[in-house]
Design brief:
alpha/beta, 11 strands, disordered N terminus, 2 domains, eleven-stranded mixed beta sheet, Rossmann fold, 301 residues, elongated
């Protein structure tokens, strides 16, 4: 795994003062709580604990009965949300409960916009079904459409992240497009905050791996990568630039394991730019298999 270190300047630090924690009350969604608490305490942020519920259909009910049933369901949802607030992980934090009825993707976008959210945090799992808000495909639609960065905790998150884990290794995967670079300022700021190392990884097509001259031919590309990112990292932050070839998702996951990374980051394209329901994208595969949190940010629409 060939790499070259570089020392580069810095851009202004990010501000994370308003955090959205989206939950469906499942055990999977509770895996995000340690990260919610750690980020909120680090940045003295307010936490908006959000649950979006979908009314249970009662086709034979009268309008009056339907209204009463929906009000009962809303009260139960809010009670479940209020039971999360006293949990030890959220102790001492400013927490505001937000509940809404409707499509989770649309309602969470409204919350992010109306409350000026700086970062959304959610968990995802592989289950499917009407009631499972955070199934993988829904989570992908969220991090591709929400205007703020999204920190996703996947189903294979390592046990070490149940505690407050310092960030020491950050893996930034990029295809060098403007969209893929959208998350880098956030990663650079986190690296500065935590004195962490960033590994910038670019994966070439698998067929290039058999070219005996690939290392020599990659040298100009590595120099281009250094020039592209050098103005966004703190002077004392160590940055490694790596070029490899193969299946992009597999390589990203392999490097994350090799580095024992605490964070993977990459920029994503808007849903309108990609058909997510017909294929498993690189982003989906990484989020669903990563053993550490994944930070994504949407490129400009």
């Amino acid at each position: 795994m060939n790499a070259r270190a570089a020392v580069v300047p810095i851009l202004p630090a990010i501000q994370l003062k308003r955090i959205l924690y989206a939950t469906d009350f499942s055990e999977a969604s509770r895996k995000a709580l340690p990260m919610v608490a750690a980020v909120a305490r680090k940045y003295h942020a307010r936490v908006f604990l959000a649950h979006i519920w979908q009314p249970i259909p009662y086709p034979m009910a009268t309008p009056e009965a339907l209204t009463a049933l929906e009000q009962l369901q809303e009260r139960e949802v809010r009670k479940d949300a209020e039971e999360l607030s006293p949990l030890p992980q959220l102790s001492g934090l400013e927490v505001e409960i937000v509940t809404a009825s409707g499509d989770p993707r649309e309602e969470l976008q409204h919350i992010v916009h109306d409350r000026n959210i700086d970062l959304a945090i959610l968990s995802t799992h592989g289950r499917t079904g009407f009631r499972h808000l955070m199934m993988g495909s829904v989570a992908e639609e969220l991090f591709r459409n929400l205007p703020c960065p999204v920190l996703t905790i996947g189903p294979h998150i390592a046990d070490r992240f149940t505690e407050n884990t310092p960030i020491r290794e950050i893996l930034f995967a990029t295809d060098l497009s403007p969209e893929s670079r959208a998350v880098f300022p956030f990663l650079a700021a986190l690296a500065d905050e935590y004195d962490a190392r960033i590994t910038v990884l670019h994966v070439l097509p698998e067929e290039t791996g058999t070219n005996p001259d690939v290392r020599r031919l990659s040298a100009p590309l590595r120099d281009h990568m250094e020039q592209m990112f050098r103005d966004e990292v703190a002077p004392m932050c160590k940055v490694d630039f790596v070029i490899d070839s193969g299946d992009a998702a597999e390589k990203i996951l392999a490097y994350a394991r090799y580095l024992n990374a605490e964070l993977i980051g990459f920029g994503v394209r808007h849903t309108s730019d990609i058909v997510t329901h017909l294929q498993k994208t690189i982003a989906y595969c990484v989020v669903m298999q990563a053993e550490c949190p994944v930070l994504t940010s949407r490129g400009q629409v």
